[in-house]
Amino acid sequence: MTETSGAFNVKTSGWDGIISVGDALTIYYTPPDNYFSDPSTPLLFYGGFNSYDGSAPPLTLPLTPCWDDNDFAKGEYKCHLTVPNFARSIKFAVTDGVRYDTGPGTEEGEWFEIHVTNVQVEGEGGDVRLMRHDPITKAMTLLGVVEN
């Protein structure tokens, strides 16, 4: 379990602030003080989608430092990610290659998690259905069908 944890927030390209498949996300991360031993070591987004647990090869993305208007590092990092068609959640840790920050209060095997609200699923006839995914109840509500 992570004793102290960084914080993250997400900005989406979606007009309504809801995260949907196809959205371009910017994920911002602020590490906890003195968590990563060498501040010059690059940090990585390390994760995957849906029930990702670290057993499959991860998606790794470099986190780049954020700068303020005066070119001073803000202590915050960011990466960019496009939500793939099959995603219902994005699970990740942040690592320097030695330590892994998996989120506040998470138990072993848990990760930071971003829920994808508007998802796509394949219908029985092969059509692509747009669905609203409730991350708590896991209920799916039909929003529409993608035209071919």
Automatic annotation (TrEMBL):
This is Uncharacterized protein.
